[in-house]
Amino acid sequence: MSSSRFIVLAIPVGVLIALLWSGRARDGSWRVVVRVALAVYLAVLVGLVFFPLPSPESHLSELYAQIDPWPVGWVNLMPFDTILQSIRLGPDWPQFWILLGNVAAFVPLGVFVGCFWPERASWRRAFAICLAATVSIELVQLGVALLLGYPYRVADIDDVIVNVFGGLLGFGGFVLGDRAGRALLPARYVFWHPTRRLPGID
After folding, report:
1. Can you give the pLDDT at residue 70?
2. pTM for this structure?
């Protein structure tokens, strides 16, 4: 299955789950919007990081077996090796844009952490959720590669680093927007925050 086909099929399912969840929670229209947006984001993220799934009978199996025997080409546990190489290559090489894409891919997740817990904005929570999400992705990719018999994706510690960095950027953007909104807007317009105001601001 291709990435685009998975995304097209997964988005309606995710949106339906988000709407059912919101119907049970009955906690306001803002939460409905956040859940639906999260469902769409997760569908796109899963489609991009796991698909397309090649067939175990693919000719790539023999190719990878010759070029990259385990664990070379399957796992990279050297921090900043891929990052520095991509930076050295620069924007004329696709590795550079893949690096930026890995950062950008987790920016929305950091924003969603803030949207779900605006009254308890915590860098530690954002870090823990982003770390757990990206480590899970890398482990699943490695598991699928082992089942297929060749590394269709490389489990890379640098992917974990840049994903978490992107998530923290997104959370930082939410924190700045949240504080600016509560400081500048009338309380009735701060619809995303239960407390409606910054401490010490009338």
Report:
1. 59
2. 0.86
